[in-house]
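Much of the work behind modern protein science is quiet bookkeeping, done one molecule at a time. The protein below has been through that process, and both of its lines are reproduced in full.
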Amino acid sequence: MLLNDRTAIVYGAGGSIGGAVARAFAEAGARVHLVGRTRATLEAVAADIKGAEVAVVDALDETAVEEHLAGVGDVDISFNLVTRGDVQGAPLLDMPVEDFLRPVVNGTRAGFITARAAARRMAGRGSGVILTLNSGSAHGSPMMGGTGPADAALDTLVRNLAIELGPRGVRAVGIWAAGVPETLTREKLAAVNPDLDEVAVQGIVDHLAGMRLTRRNPTLAEIAATAVFLASDHAGGITGTFVNATGGMVSA
């Protein structure tokens, strides 16, 4: 199996994408640690993964992240999928400063804290993979508030980590994944745009498919499979970049 005997930590494992990635890592042979802020959602994912470890940890808390990793020991894969508090659907001219900055600050802080903690351990052993995911919105994202700047910060963080860590055997790479239908439920979208109804949600899903070169939306299983590949030795030549899994919605 591609990830046999690897130890993987998934931050934000209780979410739709985090849970799918954690299950895919386990199916590929990894020992999986599920980390997040809500025990109930983490345990729901753990029920599908034999031997999964669950830990309630706030990825914004530097001390908590370090203490958790100290208990885990060696880490081969660290994947940051934590939510950032993005607010979307309003023009920038009408957006409060706090709503604009929240995803930038939270996303950069969590990405840095989790990557640094894992990379310190990986660099000492001469191997490891730091993974993250965003929507690729740094290339233009009107009506999406601070999502674009937050994604841009993570893009740059990944490149700089790869430059510094590459000589020590550690890769840093990300995935652009925008508008995965299984994540676009009315309940989940209400967190960033409370005015949407079911008809509007379906309209968004259909509109997103039409924006892609493939004219179809990527599936959750496809995103998870991409993560498994990037975490494996088969992707050993890929670092310092983001793999575009948006179906061509964004370009670089």
In short: Residues 7-180+218-244 form a domain with the Rossmann fold fold (CATH 3.40.50.720). Residues 14 and 40 are 8 Å apart (CA to CA).
